[in-house]
Write a structure and sequence with these properties.
Oligomer: single chain
Largest sheet: 9 strands, antiparallel
Strand order of the largest sheet: 3-4-5-15-11-18-9-8-6
Number of helices: 16
Strand content: 5-15%
Radius of gyration: 27 Å
């Protein structure tokens, strides 16, 4: 069911490049007939090969229990649902069938409303409420319906198609349902979204047909509680209590709410945004506390530009390189001290397209607890576009960045492409391996890293526009940089004296709606000692 489709036009483009190189290697005067025959034959082979690739099933990268971390994998589940709905039509009326079809109708309504967009299904997998609703249908409603359908006399041809599709499809699990609920909780906590709005399908100014019931609110509250977000958990339980329709349900939610209250007050930490400002026993009715990172992500605590002297904040420049003489760079100085620079239109649409095509079907999940994302490494040898991009990195940064095999010839790391789906984020962190800490037991303080040097500089390429969220937040500087397709963000992690610049701690804000693709080039320290000379000045 999961087909990773390679577009014919792209395949032909690369096939023709290979063919031309082959033909140019042949004699120019002798064997001309053979030259022409090979050209014609090569074209036919290229076309047939590309058509075969277009429809060839390829191994999927979806991981069981992790679909909620890569919502684009749910596109296959969206297609599978059409078969499920056909199969449910043969069943007599039941509560599960009614709940499933009602929830599915929300998706149909919103997809039809977006029919004119380039990707109508993104209304589903790009919205955390729809992601949750889809996973909930598969996990809670489809399982009992499937058992009923497999029993006679309801085993129909439609159900046979469902069973055939299930052989190659990875479906959501209980783990995905918990993860999708935790994503909603994260977004509400970071961006202070109103719970009542989320319950009615509203995120910011984007309305959806999804509705959350009391059990959904309880599930989000439990997800928050499991992650230690006790203040947010308490608020979700409180909202669930307002939805209780009978005494028994009120008693059940009240007991859960009391349990979180006790846990909050007995483990209370005054400096953590996981707790309220005061113990609940002292102040029962409180609002969420926000970290500096959350404040910046919301755009409510921006400190403006910190540029002092030098070029104007927005200007056109060649960066001193003849390469950019005929087409200068459009530059915005986000910060002058420390220097943070945004290059507009650094990547062309075609370069973005190539980077995505090289990466999107081969992404691996990041297993670090501080991030919810997927990644793939692209060495310079992967494609001419990657190699060309690396050369431009050297021109624009004035730093060596070439990849090597050991410490004697490694100035930069392979290009890393990253994907963030709804709720995808990167918590506050540093880009360096060891310069930010004196910890001699740091596992990243390896002999190779010590020889190559730490990450001197970072260059982030934004590969798409994000519908909402997903900005890069320099919370110590109170700066927020929003992704813009084709732009590149550059900064030095290390001062000229070799120390890490603590002002450059940053994080990737959670994706509220849509998705985020970016690529990162990290430049290493030691082979650039002549390009960026050292100094003993602690402020340099």
């Amino acid at each position: 069911m999961q087909f990773l489709l390679l577009k014919i036009d792209t395949c032909l483009f690369f096939s023709q490049i290979v063919l031309r190189r082959l033909l140019h290697s042949l004699p120019t005067r002798t064997g001309m007939a053979r030259h022409n025959n090979m050209a014609a034959t090569g074209q036919v082979v290229a076309i047939l090969t590309c058509v075969w690739l277009r429809f060839m099933p390829v191994a999927a990268t979806a991981v069981k229990g992790k679909l909620h971390t890569f919502p684009e994998h749910l596109r296959d589940v969206i297609g599978f649902e059409k078969l499920v709905v056909d199969a449910i039509g043969s069943l007599p009326e039941s509560e599960e069938a009614s709940l499933y079809l009602q929830s599915h109708e929300w998706a149909v309504t919103d997809t039809e409303a977006a029919a004119d967009s380039d990707e109508p299904d993104e209304v589903i997998y790009g919205n955390p409420l729809h992601v949750y609703a889809l996973i909930k249908r598969m996990v809670l409603y489809w399982k009992p319906l499937r058992k009923t359908l497999l029993g006679s006399p309801f085993h129909t041809e439609a159900m046979a198609k469902v069973q055939e599709a299930e052989k190659t499809l990875i479906l959501p699990t209980d783990e995905d349902l918990v993860g999708a609920a935790q994503t909603i909780g994260l977004l509400q906590h970071v961006y202070l979204l109103q719970i009542s709005h989320l319950q009615q399908g509203l995120i910011l100014n984007v309305s959806s047909s999804v509705r959350l019931d009391i059990w959904d609110c309880i599930r989000v509250a439990q997800g928050n509680e499991a992650l230690g977000r006790l203040s947010a958990s308490y608020l979700w339980y409180r909202h669930a209590l307002s939805l209780a329709s009978n005494v028994d349900m009120s008693a059940h939610v009240s007991a859960l709410m009391e349990s979180v209250r006790v846990k909050h007050d007995t483990t209370f930490k005054n400096s953590s945004d996981l707790y309220f400002l005061e113990k609940l026993a002292k102040v029962p009715d409180q609002e969420l506390r926000s970290s500096s990172y959350s404040l910046i992500c919301r755009g409510s605590d921006e400190g403006g530009r910190t540029s002092q002297a030098g070029p104007p904040p927005c200007h056109v420049t060649t960066r001193g390189s003849p390469y950019f003489l005929l087409q200068p760079l459009r530059v915005e100085v986000i910060s002058g001290d420390p220097e943070i620079i945004l290059f507009y239109n650094f990547l062309s649409d075609n370069e973005v397209k190539v980077l995505l095509q090289l990466s999107q079907d081969k992404m691996q999940q990041d297993d670090h607890p501080s991030r919810q994302s997927h990644h793939m490494l692209l060495p310079n040898s992967t494609h001419p576009v990657v190699e060309s991009l690396s050369r431009r990195v050297a021109y624009v940064t004035h730093l060596h960045q070439y990849e090597g095999t050991d410490h004697t010839n490694t100035a930069g790391e392979q290009l890393k492409v990253r994907y963030y789906g709804t709720g995808g984020h990167l918590k506050p962190h540093v880009d360096t391996y060891f310069r930010h800490s004196n910890d001699t037991n740091n596992p990243l303080r390896t002999p190779m890293n010590l020889k190559i040097g730490d990450r001197l500089a970072s260059l982030v390429f934004y590969l798409n526009d994000v519908q909402a969220g997903g900005a890069t937040a320099f919370y110590n500087l109170k700066l927020l940089v929003k992704p813009q397709k084709g732009s590149a963000l550059f900064w030095h992690n290390l001062k000229r004296n070799g120390e890490y610049d603590r002002r450059l701690d940053h994080g990737g804000c959670p994706i509220i709606l849509g998705k985020k693709w970016l690529a990162i080039k990290w430049i290493r320290e030691h082979l650039n000692f002549l390009r960026r000379p050292c100094t003993t000045d602690p402020e340099a």
